[in-house]
Amino acid sequence: MQSSQQQIISHVQQWLHSGRPVWLCTIMKTWGSSPRPIGAMMACTMDGELVGSISGGCIEEDFLEQLRDGSLKAQYDEESKPFLVKYGVTAEEQARLKLPCGGQLHVLLEYIDSTKVNVDVFQRLAVDLENHNRVSRIVDLNNGVISAAAESSEEAVVIEGSRMTHSLSPMYRLLILGAGDVAKFVAEMAIALEYDVTLCDPRPNYLDNWHVAGVETTAQLPDDVVRERFSNPYSGIIALAHDPRVDDMALMEALKTNAFYIGAMGSVKTSAARRERLPELGLNDEEISRLHAPIGFQINSKTPAEIAIAVMAEVTAVRYQK
After folding, report:
1. What is the edge-to-edge ordering of all strands in the sheet holding 41-45?
2. Lesser CB count within 10 Å: N end or C end of the chain?
């Protein structure tokens, strides 16, 4: 499974590798109720094969029409470099494109030829994202030359002079502990939110009847799974086993990592007891303070689906606040 950014980068790499030039559109600035955030991308081949999105469909339709009538290529040939298109500047254009009231988008259009240099750059981007390494796409706005760099910014797009840095994030991963009903709903929601999800439960027979499409399951020891695959800032650990033999084994490793989210299910009393146990596993107060427990936003619900909503709402909030 890949995030939307990874899908776009992978498609561009494959198209270029097969000798097909690509148009790459990147949102540079937004005003008002823009439908997509800064840094969002869309890529398209010369024959109209498209991946990604920069709006709800209205701008894509306008883009494809200009692709078909040749006006996009004519503008690129005149500029000989990436060029900016401003959508929704006038009320008439907002109405024509069906943009939300007051919405504007500034979109950078790049015509990328299928040279070996470009193939290699997008191969580097795709590999770094697959390996959960943050990477940036660097574009020289004067001539369209693209490179990749292991540098990043909290801002999705940064322009310094004629240099654009477009920060790309790898797909986020979630490790769920405990094969139960709450875990099923959490996993389904996480998949819908574009997380790469793994369910771990080393207890005999617990995985026999647990299945969610797109979720990897493992009976490995939880601390080994955390250490091997969930110890970076793009990882979250959600302990739902309600069994210290499973949850605490994962937490004693997870709380020493820089995972963006670590939470454990349980009542206030159970959570307090867990915090008293964790120092015995070699954790200090600062490490233990990172634990979200009781897990999730407190909505006073006891049904598995509603608990899962509370959990994923908190995970999402922490991810965007970090």
Report:
1. 50-52, 41-45, 22-31, 104-112, 83-87
2. C
- Helix 71-79 and helix 58-69: axis angle, to 10°? 80
Q: Are 89 and 208 in the same domain?
A: no
Secondary structure class of 5 (helix, strand, coil)? helix
Structural domain containing residue 205: 173-321
Helices (H), 280-322: 285-288, 304-321
Domain limit, last residue, from 103, 133, 163: 133
Which of these, 215, 239, 214, 209, lies nearest to 226 by C-alpha position? 239
Q: What is the CATH number of the domain that holds 298?
A: 3.40.50.720
Of the candidates 129, 222, 134, 210, the residue with the CA atom closest to the CA atom of residue 175: 222
CA distance 59 to 86: 11
pLDDT digits (tens, 9 = 90+) for 162-172: 999 999 988 89
72 lies in the same domain as 200? no
How sure is the predictor about 32, in pLDDT bands with cuts at 50, 70 and 90? low
266-317 pLDDT, tens digit per residue, is 999 999 999 999 999 999 999 999 999 999 999 988 899 999 999 999 999 9
Q: CB atoms < 10 A from the CB of 190, how many?
A: 26
Cα Rg, the chain, nearest whole Å: 23
What is this structure's pTM?
0.74
Instruction: Specify whether 188 is located in the same domain as 298.
Output: yes
Which of 133, 160, 188 is the C-terminal boundary of a domain? 133
SS3 content of the chain, % helix, strand, coil (to 5): 40, 25, 40
Number of domains comprising the chain: 2
